[in-house]
Amino acid sequence: MTPHPWSVPAPVEAERVRDVERLGMLDTPPEGRFDQVTNMARRVLGVPAASLSLMDGDRQWMKSIQGLDIDEVPREKTVCRTTIARAYRRPEDPMLVIPDAAADPEFTEIPGIGGPDGIRFYAGYPLFGPTGHPVGTFCVYDTEPRNLDPQQIEAFTELAEWAQRELERSAELDRAAEIQNQLLPRPLTGPEGYRVAAVCLPAFTVAGDFYDHYSRGDTLMLTVADVMGKGLGAAILSSSVRASVRGASRVLDRFGPADGAHDTGAVTTLAAEHLAEDCELTSTFVTALLAAIDLPTGTIHYTDAGHGLALVRRSDGRIDPLKEGGPPIGILPGTTWTSDEAQLEPGDVLVICSDGLLDLVDEGSDPAAVGRFVQPFADPDELAAATRELVAGRPPLDDVTVVAVRRETA
Length: 410
What we know:
Layout: H1 10-23, H2 32-45, E1 49-55, E2 59-66, E3 72-74, H3 80-89, E4 96-98, E5 121-128, E6 134-142, H4 150-183, E7 194-201, E8 209-216, E9 219-227, H5 231-255, H6 264-282, E10 286-294, E11 299-305, E12 310-313, E13 319-321, E14 340-343, E15 349-353, H7 355-361, H8 368-374, H9 380-393, E16 400-407
């Protein structure tokens, strides 16, 4: 039996759909970088419509479409199904050009082909996913029969390559997000007598926020930092900040005074020296709060570098904000930070968050609003869950990070 011209064998189709899903792009909002490609195609090729779409198992979904008022169409009712199949059958020549679809029996039954203001001319090029399967198409359309001359074919191919690069960039961002998530510390099952919960929820694919927590002997080390800006650039620098803080902590622990692990001011100062050139070259800065909790006593040694969003929720529900400290890292070269102290009693919860949470809980950016949000939660896990729920209901414009530590026993 001869296969249908647009059919794809079932095992191959299953892999192809998985490649579509790996992109994580279906049903996402429009993006200017894709609209630039379709708008340019209309201008360069003189066509009334252009699209960049993904082909799911049963539908064609438009990531960008210009000149046509549709968001998606059933797969069996689109010409692009043939472009997808052609990518497998003629990989050496994947472009599909149809001078007059209304005159081709294969396409005349498709809604929107022919008739008044219907599509006559079609040119499509497959777009490929992370493992090489055709996941979508870049297409141009006209309501009049026509063809592409060699120069226009060259331009159309270059535009399709541009669309492919943007698609690959999305896949790379997803991989970056996966790596960044893997770099976050594993949940702490200890230390004994304490419970720790943390969330870091990016506003975009990757975050400029990060948190870190780890035990060093009888000390629990905590860091929450926020790199100025959002997206990939801030995320790259946040990895450098994490490495510098951890490195400075290790240096002081091995070569500093006996209480070096508790001297968060010295750790901040040394990390800032390591980051000075990075901040200068990128014209950015970092707010951070470093804390070292002495586990036997509950004493918190901390340094606030322009962060200003840390508090202790007392066992009776009172909110005690931690004292604000020096400037952000990268603002004033040569700054020396010092350490302050607070006390964590049994039943108290130390909470450190980023300003993305503040933006969500108060339009006026009043830090007291963070305390009001935290106050109902004596359990770190419940606070983390409430933060996730808040972000899910109101997608943030900035990264949201919360770290909470409860002292259970004396």
